[in-house]
User: What shape does this take?
Amino acid sequence: DVKVTQSSRYLVKRTGEKVFLECVQDMDHENMFWYRQDPGLGLRLIYFSYDVKMKEKGDIPEGYSVSREKKERFSLILESASTNQTSMYLCASKPTPLGNTGELFFGEGSRLTVL
Amino acid sequence: AQSVAQPEDQVNVAEGNPLTVKCTYSVSGNPYLFWYVQYPNRGLQFLLKYITGDNLVKGSYGFEAEFNKSQTSFHLKKPSALVSDSALYFCAVRGISGGYNKLIFGAGTRLAVHP
Assistant: This one.
């Protein structure tokens, strides 16, 4: 089974702090994604990466950056956390389109509270 | 525009009764449609998908979904609900943004199954 691991399940940070959310997948998937989940808004795509050192903005990239130095690891960075970034963050991965019809494999989520 | 609508915030069903969770979509071309389930404080789990072929798709945990092209709908169904089915359900459609495939999620529907 594909395993997507998010290192921190719960974090509490203060406004202005730098926050790192780490995600590791063990199935050699090329594509990795970061979503945030908020009640009534569903999942919104922040950033995604289709290869090492490659990144693309999603629908709500403002206030976030990402890093993909190794294929298995995709990090989400909040340079200066703000209270409106309090949310559940979900990492996901999937293999390349060939032979794959698009379903994502999700981690357990990281619930971030910014005070 | 590419979008997914889940018109019900919450669905309440008695255990043993059939359940339906509604989803409609808007996407150009042939749709790739998905249902995911999220249990409390967990990530999303893939339930089923429609790519092509039979309009009735069977998935995990006894769930099925019916693709209706004329109504642009992909409703999730189960003949007999269980209390353990209580969770948050997300419908998603594959869309294209900036030349890349991505999943577009609905806002989610909370299913509550009462004993």
Observations:
- Chain A touches chain B at residues 4, 6, 9, 33, 35, 40-45, 48, 50, 56, 58-59, 90, 92, 97, 101-109, 111 (CB under 8 Å).
